[in-house]
Amino acid sequence: MTxxxxxxxxxxxxxxQHEPYYQVEVIAPFIELRSGPASGYPIFxxxxxxxxxxxxxxxxxxxxxxxxxxxxGWVSVLALQQAQExxxxxxVSEYGLAASTPFEQRTMEFGIHGGVLEGVSALGAQVSxxxxxxxxxxxxxxxxxxxxxxxxxASVSLSHQPFKEWAYSPYxxxxxxxxxxxxxxxxIGSGDESRRxxxxxxxxxxKKHVMRNFIIxxxxxxxxxxxxxxxxxxLEQWTTGFSVYF
Length: 246
Fold this sequence. Notes:
The chain is mostly beta strands. It contains three helices and 17 strands. The longest helix is centred in the middle third of the chain and has 8 residues. The protein is elongated, with a radius of gyration of 25 Å.
């Protein structure tokens, strides 16, 4: 069949509708139908490979579909993209709405990451709030345990992700925070003591949506620490991360 066919007579809710709907064919092993246009609604039916679905309407990032047997339900645009080929652009053109995915529409993101800070192993966590389609505010906490000292970094940042629809989506961020440095084995009289420094950060990275609500990322961060001696100490951090979004 063609990538999208218009069907003029569709059985829906017991009545024959005379509207120009689009019909798609499921090419994935299956596609799940929910009772409402959100992931919180239960899955009540599964359309299998080869079945044809008529697209009735769209609400945000969800399409209402009806099977040949007359079963109607809601399918996310992400599931529809993964289940069939070539129809998304025509559906968007038909309904005049952007086919944004849950990844593009996420509002909260929680993640953990690991890597190296100046050659020392580091672990961290962050929480982000997506307050516009491309801008997010984040809280970060990182800890690096070296043989000589222990560094704890708490910071806030503002990130910009201009191409969220890309498979590998780049972003950059600026931020500020504090670094607590504590010597592991201080020497008496050496002057090597715990200290707290203000810090400014700049980050660049790439995010990849892998499945459902999960993201993997790789990031480079430059940290400028302002010491009490009015000197700037430059630190570099490389991390890979894993996060879940809502």
